[in-house]
Specification:
Layout: H1 2-11, E1 15-17, E2 23-24, E3 30-31, E4 33-35, H2 44-61, E5 67-71, H3 74-86, E6 90-93, E7 106-107, E8 115-123, H4 127-138, E9 142-151, H5 155-164, E10 168-173, H6 174-183, H7 191-200
Parallel strand pairs: 5-6, 5-8, 8-9, 9-10
Antiparallel strand pairs: 1-4, 2-3, 6-7
Helix pairs in contact: 1-6, 2-3, 6-7
Length: about 210
């Protein structure tokens, strides 16, 4: 599954690897990779595989799941589609509370004690998804864990998830994608080590040698 999803993300341009022309993230970090999993929604064949993989991952790893919650905004559609496959209730968590109406941050029905799985499209340092987990816990939910489409496998993200006491299962990851990208001709084989060096220490720009 990890290799198939990696191939899919590369084939539709949801992930770009461009080590010789780095992207600049909002943080100012120079990166050889850019990921936009929202493009999955525009590709029916890939979308079908991704949503089925999310549903299967929830079914296999979180069999007690009662509610699926998406992250705002990119995780919402994937949570909804996977919830439809599994015939489970679905909702989502806003990035901030509404400033009108009931001032909800959690949208959809959620009862104290509900067993929840969070669906996220991308995990880098893990900060935003952990905030969602803590919001759900504060509302009384039992968060079983996370299913993400792609993770950079960054040390900071792994440590944050561990400290928060939350599991994550990703459909694919940076290491697998780098290998597949080299095999499929997206990057030269000698660039795999460079991009992995970036992943291991994003603040060290020596990978751009």
């Amino acid at each position: 599954m990890e290799r198939q999803i990696a191939k899919d993300l590369l084939s539709i341009g949801a992930v770009f690897l461009r080590p010789n022309e780095p992207f600049t993230w909002a943080s100012g970090i120079k990166s050889p990779i850019y990921c936009d999993n929202r493009l999955i929604l525009s590709e029916p064949e890939v979308r079908g595989r991704v949503e089925q993989a999310i549903a299967d991952t929830i079914r296999n790893n979180y069999p007690g799941c009662e509610v699926i919650m998406g992250t705002s905004t990119a995780g919402i559609a994937h949570a909804a589609l996977a919830a439809d496959i599994l015939r489970l209730p679905m909702g989502y968590v806003r990035s901030g509370a509404k400033d009108h109406g009931r001032a909800n941050r959690i949208e959809g029905k959620l009862k104290p004690g509900d067993k929840v799985v969070v669906v996220e499209d991308l995990i880098s340092t893990g900060g935003s998804v952990i905030e969602v987990v803590e919001t759900l816990r504060s509302a009384g939910a039992e968060v079983l864990g996370i299913v993400s489409i792609f993770t950079y496998n960054m040390k900071k993200g792994i440590e944050r998830l561990k400290d928060a006491g939350v599991k994550n299962f990703s459909l694919s990851n940076f290491d697998v994608l780098a290998q597949v990208a080299a095999e499929e001709g997206y990057i030269p084989a000698e660039d795999v080590e460079r991009v992995i060096d970036f992943r291991n220490n994003p603040s060290d720009e020596s990978w751009m040698r």
